[in-house]
Amino acid sequence: SAYRLCIMRRLHSVLARTLTSGTSGSPGLPDMSEVRSKLRDIVGASTNWRDHVQAMQERKALHTLLAKQQEDLPPRRMKDSYLEVILPLGSQPEIREKYLNVHNSVRFGRILEDLDSLGVLICYTHTKQEMQHRSPLSIVTALVDKINLCQKIIHPDCDIKFTGNVSWVGKTSMEVKMHMLQLHDGDYSPVLDATFVMVARDPENKRPAFVNPLIPESPKEEEIFKQGELNKLKRIEFSTSSLLKMAPTAEERNIVHDIFLNTLDTRQEGEGTVSFQSRKLPPNSVWMEDAKLKGLQICHPQERNIFNRIFGGFLMRKAFELGWAIACSYGGSRPFIVSVDDIMFQKPVEVGSLLLLSGQVCYTEKNYIQIRVHTEVYNANTREHHTTNIFHFTFISENEVPQVVPKTYGGKYPIKSMLYLDGKRHFTAVMKEM
After folding, report:
1. Domain 32-241 has CATH 3.20.20.140
2. Could you give the percent of the chain with pLDDT greater than 70?
3. Which one of 117, 124, 229, 245 has the minimum C-beta count within 10 Å?
4. What is the tens place of the pLDDT at every residue in 272-309?
């Protein structure tokens, strides 16, 4: 089962014991509201929308504090950025409503928002300079590499603890590993592991900026750091072999052709009467074009981040909720999130934008549903569309789901077949990780 994932997460518990440096239990830990408050203080963000222009102008002057080269910055250790944060759903029932869903469990979209905020604060902790009250760096989420869950249900009345630290550093980017645990019978048990990649930019968020190097201090930390390097190489390899750049493999071409043959309507009699257009849906199947939903979001100032762009966690929440709705309607029962992977933040979303979301079931196998959500910004003045994000979600349904089938014609491989193969690749990668 995919939910046995956390049995293999021994490394985290060993590292966490090393990094806590004497911290134990929940008393005195900051909560998520304190995380967001600290972030505002670090960059000097105003809580008033009307003051945001002046606040951003003031940040421009901080560019003189940027390092000219990485070697000018003091190295950091993993424990220097280690943070523990509490989400007191059990001990503070008044905050529970915001996190509650109709099934009386925790809204996973809210957890995505919290992970995004925590990841940014961890990176600011790694790059903090003693003499600087405000950071000259604009640290933003570049990629959600993966989030793997080992619990189906997140309980709404038990405290949650997030832990995390910087696990790998390049010149201008940082990988952050985060873990979420929930309190049961006096002990915290694992719920999910997350890997985010953050990038540092100048105060105006226009050019890359150098960050402090990371020095592993033990064999375990060396192993974690090496895994960060491997993750980077895997991302490059995955991107290089993308179907947007390279043709499908021979095996993938055979898969698409087999689907085509299985959906060919051969009931017509007479030589030459069967055409590429003659299609029939196999039993217990759904055409891909009938397995999608769309949404629209007006991006109000309330959803802005500390840099007065739309908060990445909010975008993740809205995309997840659309993906969940698609999985729910497709499978005919309540779906559970298994994995989130390869979320690329391609373009920031400005306040006031019209955000168009388009979700699609792109692959199914037994009880699993692989969903892709594409988001784009529509500019009403220029009538142009620009892609901002692509999200990949793996859900598991309570029952076996119909097979999703792309329509293909002849020897061509149109968009639905490419989406199907891309979905299969993501699903295979997730199952391998499990």
Report:
1. no
2. 87
3. 245
4. 555 555 678 888 999 999 999 999 999 998 888 888 88
- Fold match between 32-241 and 250-265+279-432? yes
pTM: 0.87
Name the residue type at position 272: G
pLDDT of 2 strictly over 50: no
CA distance 309 to 5: 35
Residue ranges covered by each domain of the chain = 32-241, 250-265+279-432
Q: CA-to-CA distance for 244 and 236, rounded, in angstroms?
A: 14
| The two structure tokens encoding residue 293 | 């939903």
User: What pLDDT does 337 receive?
Assistant: 95
The pLDDT value given to residue 21: 40
**So what CATH class is 250-265+279-432?**
alpha beta
**Distance (Å, rounded) from C-alpha 63 to C-alpha 55?**
14
288-300 in b/e form (b: 16+ CB < 10 A) is beebbbebebebe
Can you give the pLDDT at residue 276?
56
